[in-house]
Write a structure and sequence with these properties.
Length: 121
């Protein structure tokens, strides 16, 4: 038996802002999008060239209340090849939420508050 982790779903209020965030912050790109013909919801799948892992961004038309997406301790993590360059980019984007120099890592947040741990490779 074998199980392979393929994606993480997160709910988003502003699909376009969240797509733009992941494109800029972590080099992701949209690989496919699905949803009903009436446009009431979409699932947008994103990935980057460094990992087979995908993000599934679920958007629901008319939603105005922020999503919980698992609470403050829930996060995803990325090991980056140039920690200093990513740190500088994330500082410029204003998305660094918490830094932990003693552990050599920091957290950024996407437009919907999804926490993302950044670690050196």
């Amino acid at each position: 038996m074998q199980a392979r982790f393929i994606h993480r779903c997160t709910h988003v209020l502003d699909r376009e802002a969240t797509i733009a965030f992941y494109e800029k912050a972590l080099g992701f790109h949209v690989v496919r999008q699905s949803g009903p013909a009436d446009g009431s919801w979409t699932n947008t799948f994103m990935e980057n060239d460094a990992s087979p892992f995908q993000l599934e961004l679920t958007w629901n038309r008319g939603r105005t209340e922020p999503y919980e997406n698992g609470g403050r301790d829930t996060h995803i993590a990325f090991a980056v090849d140039d920690f200093e360059a990513y740190h500088k980019l994330h500082q410029e984007m204003g998305c660094i939420e918490k830094e932990n120099p003693a552990m050599g890592l920091y957290f950024i947040t996407d437009p919907d508050g999804q926490r993302i741990e950044i670690l050196p490779e």
